Prior knowledge:
The structure is a single chain. It contains 9 helices and 10 strands. The protein is an alpha/beta fold. It folds into 2 domains: about 5-120, NAD(P)-binding Rossmann-like Domain (Rossmann fold), CATH 3.40.50.720; about 150-230, 2-Layer Sandwich (Alpha-Beta Plaits), CATH 3.30.70. The strands form 2 sheets. It has a 6-stranded parallel sheet, with helices on both faces.
Amino acid sequence: MSRRDTLIFGCSALGHEVAMQLADRGIEVFLYSNDLDEVGALLAKGLQAGVIDYTDDEKLRDIGIGSWVKTIFCLFSEEPKNLFLTLSARALDDKLKIVGVCESASSGERLMAAGATKVIDPYEISGHRVHELIARPYLVEMLENTVFGKHIDIAEIEIPQHSPLSGSLLNDLQLGKRYNLIVIGVVDLELGNQLIFSNSGVAHRLDAGDILVVIGPMREITRLKQGVCENSLEPLPGSRDP
């Protein structure tokens, strides 16, 4: 039995794509479905997948929900399945991170009410991207050649206790000079899940538990993560302070 701490439910094209994206980031996943044909197709591609009855709580416990599993993706093609799994998984673990996919704003609200941590609306994302393609085609082309070309990446970095970043203002970080990274913003969980953009004009003071959202080369993101976790952030050029 796999002891992966990240599981994907739903072996459709979306589940396959999410699995590949996570693998590119060094996150190994195991995929589950109640559809034998879907599982067989992924096994043929070399992915780790299995058949499961997602309506059976004991089966969910057997694969680690409620113990070692930290994150699940509910990516079934049918909304009722995602709702049922979200309710069941949340009942088994109140700290589990549950990411669900929705078909509309109303289905997204139902998933959040059922206990989802985050909800993905593929249609809304596609709509925003079409708008960007029309309004700013050169920017989209650049992103296609960088983000989707895997030259740069986006990451969330949680600020730990006693971090040298605690007390710093978001606009004063200047990570571009230290790590060749762009700070998109920060999520302060005490204020909710809304992203505070770095160019919003809000003088947000960082503290432990805040989540920095940055974009840049993966090697620089890795270096920043190590610096944050080990309290060894590199000082600004010409400065002795971290």
